[in-house]
């Protein structure tokens, strides 16, 4: 609409797309309440205080629609996917004084603190004075807390009006079960017994004055519990498929999955199927009302999804649900959907579980004769210590059923293992935690593939630039691989096909390999869309997500006439991660197995060096063409550092290094100026960085003490926007990029120029 106004249209000349009959100048009237809640991931950045300031720290958001604020708020809270089922209890220490102090803090969970304050007996006036919240909002939260108290005291109502009244306040079955001390299934059964089910209303912008031509819907509980309220869903009689989106963006699960869901909707419509989208993220294209045929703006919770599917099943040919494309969120619902008798398209829930459960997957790999790093399983600290004693340190701890490397960490000693196991077990729940031997200096590779139960197409093989142990979402990568031999690539293709067949994959699959000493190890297999799917599609010109959706809907892979994966049309694409470290004071920028990036960019060109240079420019890491390079690396990296330093010196850069590194480089015949470490006193390396005397930083380290000692180097480079590399692989790639730029300016071409046909 804004684009049309910008080129000269006026509002009265344009039609409202929602109603299809009113002009865009028609003043909107809404009969619903929309609540948007930011999504935070402070747990990803230990060391920074979980407080809100004028610098944005949220990494996504959820949106909910209801007929009342209370209904909308509680739907929004459970849409966040942070374990909330509503206004859940939070622990506030220090009695009334501690409660008032917590209310005064700009905490991301302050709405929960307010609810807890009401439970503790504080008055609305006391809460308002401490929190500065508008009294109307406090009244609404107090009303919800009062309703909770009634359920705790009296249990679930036995009559339809009473239960309907609670559902009209937005209470989920899960939350009511917690309050009444019964299971969510008991609450759901009672609801159905009393015929208390949601109806669906349309977002029409005119309070139902005109019928909406767009199927954009939300659930609500209405009526008096006696007669049936009006439902505006009007499910069609067409063959249909439901696509579950990714929910609120967060680190590890963002717009890459929204991309997949959107392309699935386009593909299904091309097949003549009705595409029905379910999502709760206002930022994404999947929740545009014209992306799919029908849109349900709903929490991605079992209760909400099952209820809307029941409505869609009431008319037409319901084919099933696609859960592979929205990241971990839909996968976590697959078991509940299957238990409800709802068909899952593509890979079966059992196959998903086989790959996600560390113990079952370990057994599968042994049966297939495929390698994993030395590992063991643990469900307790004692078991973990036993495994660690057998394998040795360092270890990578991997909980089950996580996305974005949540709660994964490299531990170097027993004290770190003891500290960490409590968190790992909590995240993994009843499923086992995997303790992997950490493959130092290994090359990590991501492989994306499509399978139809018979054939397997390897869509993309991406070599990570950072070494194994850094989360794939945080590592820069190259497609095609820039240093792997054809025999290694062929073997990974073979193993990928074996895994797809053993898991019975129908749709997308991602495999993460580590290559060390000629051996290929399997780190993880994800029978779903990976965050690299959009990158692979743009790098190869193959619409990976669209094809996968059509395969899940029943088409044969062979019918698409796909090219051999190795054919790359003579170009290289590099993906680079973008990080939010500058927004989190005190956070270290060192990367590890838990993902921290909030976005990514892509560079594409005729060779690796130029493509990497473009990726760095896109990520805001403009590489210098002259100046001083500061180098401080761990002992095992010194040989590689000498090669990089020689290359940079040959390009005219001055070299600056701390004691051990300086002595080593000087012994190799390089002219290197020595500078103090911070611990040795001023003037030291951080002074050189902050005073503008350094244009590029190469700093690698290991061990808890060394990491702590070099923190100020990395943080200073970040604050002063100086390109810095914390792995030698990254530094080597930077050298290639600088060499490429020194040979001539980078050229610009549209993406379509790299392919014979548009996709």
Polypeptide structure, described:
The protein is an alpha/beta fold. The chain is built from 26 helices and 25 strands. The strands form 5 sheets. It has a 7-stranded mixed sheet with strand order 3-4-7-6-5-8-9, with helices on both faces. α3 crosses α5 and α20 crosses α26. It is globular, with a radius of gyration of 28 Å. The mean pLDDT is 89.
Layout of strands and helices, then pairs:
Layout: H1 2-6, E1 33-39, E2 60-66, H2 69-79, H3 95-104, H4 110-119, H5 124-131, H6 135-154, H7 160-168, H8 173-180, H9 184-193, E3 199-202, E4 216-220, E5 239-244, H10 255-270, E6 274-279, E7 294-297, H11 302-313, E8 317-322, H12 328-339, E9 344-345, H13 349-356, H14 358-368, E10 375-378, H15 381-391, E11 395-398, E12 409-411, H16 414-428, E13 433-437, E14 443-452, E15 456-467, E16 477-479, H17 486-503, E17 506-516, E18 519-526, H18 533-540, H19 544-552, E19 572-578, E20 599-605, H20 608-618, E21 628-632, H21 638-650, E22 654-657, H22 659-667, E23 672-674, H23 685-690, E24 696-699, H24 704-709, H25 711-719, E25 724-725, H26 728-742
Helix pairs in contact: 3-4, 3-5, 4-6, 5-6, 8-9, 10-19, 13-14, 15-16, 20-26, 21-26
């Amino acid at each position: 609409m804004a684009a049309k106004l910008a080129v000269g249209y006026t509002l009265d000349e344009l039609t409202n797309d929602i109603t299809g009959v009113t002009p865009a100048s028609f003043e909107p009237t809404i009969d619903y309440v929309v609540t948007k809640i930011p999504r935070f991931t402070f747990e990803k950045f230990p060391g920074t205080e979980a407080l809100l300031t004028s610098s944005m720290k949220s990494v996504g958001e959820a949106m909910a629609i209801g007929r009342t604020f209370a209904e909308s708020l509680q739907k929004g809270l459970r849409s966040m996917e942070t374990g909330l089922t509503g206004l859940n209890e939070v622990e506030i220490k220090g009695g009334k004084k501690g409660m008032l102090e917590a209310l005064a803090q700009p905490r991301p969970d302050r709405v929960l603190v307010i609810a807890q304050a009401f439970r503790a007996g504080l008055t609305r006036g006391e809460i308002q004075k401490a929190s500065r919240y508008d009294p109307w909002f406090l009244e609404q939260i107090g009303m919800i807390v009062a309703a909770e108290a009634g359920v705790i005291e009296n249990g679930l109502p036995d009559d339809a009006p009473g239960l309907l009244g609670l559902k009209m306040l937005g209470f989920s079955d899960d939350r009511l079960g917690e309050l009444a001390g019964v299971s969510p299934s008991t609450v759901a059964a009672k609801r159905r017994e009393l015929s208390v089910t949601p109806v669906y209303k349309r977002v029409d912008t005119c309070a139902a004055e005109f019928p909406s031509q767009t199927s954009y819907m939300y659930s609500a509980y209405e009526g008096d519990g006696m007669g049936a309220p009006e439902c505006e869903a009007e499910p069609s009689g067409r063959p249909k498929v439901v696509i579950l989106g990714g929910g609120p963006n967060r680190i590890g699960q963002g717009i890459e999955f929204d991309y997949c869901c959107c392309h699935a909707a386009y593909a299904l419509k091309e097949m003549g199927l009705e595409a029905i989208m379910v999502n709760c993220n206002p930022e994404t294209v999947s929740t545009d009302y014209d992306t799919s045929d029908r849109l349900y703006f709903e929490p991605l919770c079992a209760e909400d999804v099952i209820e809307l599917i029941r409505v869609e099943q009431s008319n037409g040919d319901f084919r099933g649900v696609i859960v592979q494309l929205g990241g971990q969120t839909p996968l976590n619902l697959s078991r509940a959907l299957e238990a409800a008798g709802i068909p899952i398209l593509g890979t079966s829930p059992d196959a998903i579980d086989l790959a996600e459960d560390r113990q079952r997957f370990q057994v599968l790999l042994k049966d297939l004769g495929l390698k994993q790093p030395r590992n063991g399983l643990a469900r307790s600290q004692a078991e973990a210590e036993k495994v660690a004693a057998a394998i040795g340190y360092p270890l990578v701890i991997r909980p089950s059923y996580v996305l974005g490397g949540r709660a994964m960490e490299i531990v170097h000693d027993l004290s770190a293992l003891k500290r960490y196991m409590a968190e790992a077990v909590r995240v993994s729940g009843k499923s086992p935690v995997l303790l992997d031997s950490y493959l130092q200096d290994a090359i990590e590779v991501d492989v994306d593939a499509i399978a139809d139960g018979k054939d397997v197409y390897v869509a993309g093989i991406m070599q990570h630039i950072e070494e194994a142990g850094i989360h794939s979402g945080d590592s820069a990568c190259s497609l095609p691989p820039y240093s792997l031999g054809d025999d290694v690539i062929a073997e990974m293709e073979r193993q990928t096909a074996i895994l797809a067949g053993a898991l019975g994959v129908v749709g997308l699959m991602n495999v993460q390999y580590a290559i060390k000493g000629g051996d290929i190890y399997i780190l993880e297999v994800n029978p779903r869309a990976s965050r690299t799917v959009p990158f692979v599609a743009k790098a190869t010109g193959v619409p990976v997500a669209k094809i996968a959706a059509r395969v899940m809907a029943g088409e044969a892979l062979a019918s698409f006439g796909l090219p051999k994966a190795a054919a790359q049309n003579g170009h290289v694409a590099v993906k680079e991660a973008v990080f939010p470290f500058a927004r989190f004071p005190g956070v270290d920028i060192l990367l590890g197995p838990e993902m921290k990036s909030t976005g990514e960019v892509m560079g594409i060109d005729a060779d690796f060096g130029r493509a990497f240079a473009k990726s760095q420019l896109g990520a805001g890491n403009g590489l210098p063409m002259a100046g001083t390079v500061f180098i401080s690396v761990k002992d095992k990296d010194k040989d590689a550092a000498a090669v990089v330093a020689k290359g940079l010196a040959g390009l005219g850069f001055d070299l600056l290094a701390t004691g051990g590194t300086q002595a080593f480089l000087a012994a190799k015949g390089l002219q290197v100026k020595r500078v103090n470490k911070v611990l040795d006193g001023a003037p030291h390396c951080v002074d050189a960085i902050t005073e503008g005397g350094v244009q590029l930083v190469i700093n690698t380290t290991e061990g808890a003490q060394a990491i702590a000692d070099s923190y100020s180097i990395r943080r200073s480079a970040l604050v002063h926007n100086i390109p810095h590399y914390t792995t030698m692989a990254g530094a080597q790639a930077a050298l290639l990029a600088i060499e490429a730029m020194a040979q001539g300016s980078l050229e610009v071409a549209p993406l379509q120029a790299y392919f014979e046909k548009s996709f």
